[in-house]
Amino acid sequence: MSARVFVGQHRVEAIATDDRGLAYGDGLFETLRAHRGRAPWWEAHWARLERGAQRLRLPLPDRDFVRAQADAALQGVDAGVLKLIVTRGGAGRGYAPAETAEPAWILSAHPLPPGLRDGLTLRWCDTRLSIQPALAGIKHCNRLEQVLARAEWNDPAASGREADEGLMLDTEGDVVCATSANLFALVGGRWATPRIDRCGVAGVCRAWILADLGADESRLSRMQLESAEAVFLCNAVRGILPVARLGERAWAPHPQVSALRGRLAAAAPMFATHD
Amino acid sequence: MSARVFVGQHRVEAIATDDRGLAYGDGLFETLRAHRGRAPWWEAHWARLERGAQRLRLPLPDRDFVRAQADAALQGVDAGVLKLIVTRGGAGRGYAPAETAEPAWILSAHPLPPGLRDGLTLRWCDTRLSIQPALAGIKHCNRLEQVLARAEWNDPAASGREADEGLMLDTEGDVVCATSANLFALVGGRWATPRIDRCGVAGVCRAWILADLGADESRLSRMQLESAEAVFLCNAVRGILPVARLGERAWAPHPQVSALRGRLAAAAPMFATHD
Using a CB-CB distance cutoff of 8 angstroms, which residues of chain B are in contact with residue A59? Predict the structure, then answer.
């Protein structure tokens, strides 16, 4: 991993010890797929970052400057992941945001994560997502719920056998997402994805698929999901991931998912699979 | 502010760019009152840190080593605040906690915050606290709700006139705490403080007062609070803060609160007020 740290438009050695990202998770992040020296979905990620910044009233660094630095960080990267964290910067102690602090931000390039089998095995996580409309949809840095959920696999006391991803319910029992992916299900012949107005993240890949499929955003119960005709996960790093198994439930590959993957690969060649 | 950064037992220059505290708020913190070169409530703060670490399965640095560093940081500090942040350290990208990462931690000494008038003016915050039993009670670093609540004062569009602190309800409408303090209310002749099993923080000063008053931990409605005979806030930096006003409601100084303050000052002279 190589990382560069900035405050406003100034490159700095390191994040300040009183950075609010560190103290309170007071920041936002984006994780972008890199392909042939570029981040093809940059615009959509930046747009989501802007929506998050507006919600948190968090000043962003200059868009063109960040873009130029991102391009520089991706030089020579054929396939990988670019991560951008933006925090409210360093500003002493206490919750009150300083109006004057410049945002701190980190750009880092990472290798692609290890491939997953085609046809994921999922588990249900015990950790629930809390209902918080003020933070729903945006990709903020308060992610302990996801950390706890993802840690359930490493726990020998937990019920699950090996799984590729875990699904999360909110505290009212509706299905929301996987720990680091969104999800779509074919229910009664129509594609649906959970609403993200109370928790969850407005994924960039999710938005592409929503538009392509003309899918519904709806509340989805655990039972509806388990009885769906097909299920897949998606995120902006891995694209579309068909699901083969969830507990006792198994799904055969579905032609609509294969067709969707083909359309995504045509629109965004970084997601072309070679199988 | 002076700050020292460590990874395990090694002093380092700065927090790593891939630190999980920064990425996900994957950490815990303590804010201790310093008095005459010591942190008199160190043991209680460390015990809460241990409870948080157990909940998050986050490895802590060596207790004696941290204590020695804290003592060093407080040399010559007559009155101030010591802040300790412990994160799960640096471990690449992704929610799965690495089993091997050593914790990163920051010790920083700060001046005492500016004094508040004796007899606080409070406001109601619009930002609610979400219901999340998995994180309730511990002092973790996912604090965007508090940041948003505290930012309401700076917003000229918000309703409130000037206030010293803001009270927060949970998403089900029960009173929980102020943005950076707990609260007690005298209701029907008995002292009560909100339960912290669904959100909120198990404050060190709150625990002292709970024991001293033999108070109840209960669900407290907004109406119950507004009709209470007396209300005060508390935290481990400021001690006990009597409340004089909340919206239209005003309270006269209450002898039981004065007596409690006297007992706290006797037990912990750092909280002696000179008025």
Answer: none
Among A116, A46, A94, A106, residue whose Cα is nearest residue B110: A94
In A, minimum Cα distance to B13 occurs at: A14
**Calpha distance A138→A161 (Å, rounded):** 31
- The string of pLDDT tens digits covering residues B192-214 is 999 999 999 999 999 999 999 99
Which residues of chain A are within 8 Å of residue B128 when distances are taken between CB atoms? 132, 134
What are the start and end residues of each CATH 3.30.470.10 domain in chain B?
A: 2-110
CA dist., res. B23 & res. A142, Å (int): 8
Chains A–B, number of C-beta pairs less than 8 Å apart: 186
Kindly state the DSSP code that residue B159 receives in the 8-state scheme. Answer: S
**CATH 3.20.10.10 domain residues, chain B:** 120-271
CATH T-level assignment (fold) for domain A2-110: D-amino Acid Aminotransferase; Chain A, domain 1 (3.30.470)
Q: Indicate the CATH number of A120-271 among 3.20.10.10, 3.30.930.10, 1.50.10.10, 3.50.50.60.
A: 3.20.10.10
d(Cα A40, Cα A205) in Å, to the nearest integer? 12
Each residue's pLDDT tens digit, A90-137: 877 789 887 778 999 999 999 998 888 889 999 999 999 999 999 999
Residue A144: list chain B partners with CB under 8 A: 24-26, 56, 135, 140-142
According to DSSP, the residues that pair with A175 across neighbouring strands are A169
Query: Residues B46-100: pLDDT tens digits?
Result: 999 999 999 999 999 999 999 999 999 999 999 999 999 999 998 777 898 877 7
From the list B81, B88, B148, the residue facing A93 with the nearest CB is B81
Coil, helix or strand at residue B63: helix
Distance CA B224, CA B175 (A): 9
CB contact under 8 Å between B145 and A128, yes or no, is no
Identity of the residue in B1, B29, B147 whose CB atom sits nearest the CB atom of A97: B147
For B144, the closest of A26, A81, A83 (CB atoms) is A26
